[in-house]
Amino acid sequence: MASMEKKRALPRRSFTPEFKAEIVELCRRGDRSAGQAARDFELTETAVRAG
Length: 51
Hints:
By secondary structure, the protein is mainly α. It has a domain at 17-50. Helices cover 51% and strands 0% of the residues. It is built from 3 helices and no strands. The longest helix has 13 residues, at 17-29.
């Protein structure tokens, strides 16, 4: 059986209000879907939808 190593948690990222506003505006204008914005900016889709 392979050894089970614990994965180290990545540090929690924080984003500026300006960055968050940019993502929201891209989605509102229809430039990107929430899923596409998440992929483009390496975010989870849940994080984009909750923003």
